[in-house]
Task: structure prediction
Amino acid sequence: MEIKSNKINGANAQIEATISIDEVNANIEKIAKQLSKTANVQGFRKGKVPVAIIKKQYGEKLVEDAEAEALREVLAKGLEELSIDNASLIGEPTISKFDKSDDKIEVAIKVAMRPQIDLADVKSLVPDFKKPEVTDKEVEERIKEIAENQAPLVDIKRNRKMKEGDTAVIDFEGFIGGEAFEGGAAENFELKLGSGQFIPGFEDQLIGVKRDEEVTINVTFPENYGSDTLAGKDAEFKVKVNGVKVKDDVVIDDELAKKLLPGEEDATLDKLKEEVKKALEQEKLTKLYNEELKPKLLEILVEKIDFDLPEFVVDQEIDMAVNKKASQMSEDEIKELRENPEKLEELRESFRDDAMKSVKATFIIDALAQELGVKVEEQEVMQTIYFEAMQTGQDPQKAYEHYKDAGYLPAIQMSMVEDKVLTTLLNEKVEA
Result:
């Protein structure tokens, strides 16, 4: 067996070998002898089956197993020559050449290794930024907003025209083509004008209406409305205004602070301001991270950290991009790609740069997660999906099962790891 091993770069290697047919035949003999001790063949006792019978019965399968064993030997010796251990391999080795003749088999095996990434200077790559500041005015406005949200609704004393921000207490019934439709009626429903809770145009037509007045409101259900029987339909609503409510006046003082800080001993307005300021600072910092710094940091890491990429991983990323593009193509366009290999290769190459950046980012985040001790357990992924589902009014369990069945959980988990890694690096910059 002649073996020639070549380390192409830090992430890819190729092992070439010439296997003689004598070696394959020797493997056939060895495998057949082993089978003769365990095989069940009619007319022979177990363990007493002649080798010649085994060869006749298993024929081509013996040859395939013998060749596979020879390939395994080529791989093992090649990796030993290259000083590559199995733990550093990524994916399955790829047989790129298998030329069989009467007296030999010429093979080439490609292997990919986990790239070695130098993270020594990674903290110096984190961009400089200033921690967002919060003004006293912003704190006061937020406390006022919280206080107003906490305040109870009260009926207005004088019968004035309604304006945006008022809460209308209404009876209504909806009709399409003169006929009432299911779910289109309610009594004493409290609707805050300007909230966008109802169909577009409904709330606008209540502005200027007074208590005890009756009006007819004409609207059109959106084309993407949840109900197929209502989507895109013109509707008429008979509406009676039973009352108008506004938020009661609130006093911003220590008593309010005690209500809003129930776990705090000796809660005061000054303490409330401190807590609100901290919350606003965190909100601003999170917004800065998500909208500007995290994308910028990841781009810098991909640009500045240099290492070799496993070819097959990049090819897989390109395959996914091509498949996604193909799903948006017409049958004629797909046919043209099938009949024109050069055009298909051109399409594949158009995705290479983005694929390489994506793969590089994945390896960098993975290496940083290990370096920083960042982990995201499946329970955390589940909690995140549950929370987002509840925020959008979905069934949390069904949402989780949907993502799981579709195979999205690993991608969600990786996205969460990426978010944690970038946040950790940015937080260290803030604290430095």
Residues 269-304 form the longest helix (36 residues). The mean pLDDT is 91. The CA atoms of residues 11 and 308 lie 5 Å apart. The radius of gyration is 35 Å.
